[in-house]
Write a structure and sequence with these properties.
This protein is of the alpha/beta class. It is built from five helices and six strands, in the order βαβαβαβαββα. The relative contact order is 0.25.
Length: 213
């Protein structure tokens, strides 16, 4: 019988971002106090699971979210650049409705194609690197469970790819809350199921909006 292996895609916790910018791939954006608590909730949710590998995006917020999970299981946090946030031309700027860069006509030249998207990393490239990361992780610990800490858009596109759904979507309808788990269970090489849970659900209503998770 083929071993059952689960790869958990964990979104990082809330980020300290008082200026409300799209932080994207910028360095030195760390978890807020609430974000640290969210990371602890995720660790508690995985405490009794057979976690054999913990790997995260190189960005601070992802590494900090992974740390309590790795510590609980006596593991080191690995780094996989394929798990990094999607690139975005508006990185470092405010993009809120009515108060950000999108008010400027100069920004509109980046908004011509929502299917690409024209303002950031192509969805197909994002899906390919996330799939490669998931499959590589699965091979590291067949028959066990793996945690990959990433970001909202990469995780959501990875799920769309796994479910063979179109990539372009309404960002407001992504099912990928802060510190949520999108868990892919494989029987051998075959994807058997996808489940979604929110270990920090009680903290989500208190979370600040953040930008570009």
């Amino acid at each position: 019988m083929s071993p059952s292996t689960t790869v958990h895609l964990l979104r990082h916790g809330e980020v300290h971002n008082p200026d409300g910018v799209l932080y994207g791939r910028l360095p030195d954006f760390h978890l807020s106090e609430r974000g640290q608590l969210m990371a602890q909730r995720a660790a508690a949710a995985l405490a009794n699971r057979d976690i054999a590998v913990v790997t995260a995006s190189p960005l601070d917020r992802a590494q900090e979210t992974a740390a309590p999970i790795a510590a609980l299981h006596g593991l080191e946090v690995g780094v996989d650049p394929r798990l990094i946030e999607a690139g975005n031309v508006f990185e470092g700027q405010r993009v809120g409705v009515g108060d950000g860069v999108l008010r400027s006509p100069k920004a509109w030249r980046h908004l011509w194609n929502p299917f690409g998207p024209s303002w950031g990393e192509p969805y197909d490239e994002l899906a390919a690197r996330m799939k490669a990361s998931v499959l590589a992780a699965k091979e590291l610990a067949p028959g066990h469970e793996i945690v990959l800490v990433s970001h909202q858009l990469p995780i959501w596109v990875a799920r769309l790819n796994a479910e063979q759904r179109r990539y372009w979507h309404d960002p407001r309808k992504r099912q990928c809350a802060l510190a949520s788990l999108t868990s892919l269970r494989f029987d051998g090489d075959d994807l058997a199921s996808i489940t979604y849970t929110e270990p920090a659900r009680d903290l989500l209503g208190q979370a600040s909006p953040g930008r570009g998770a």
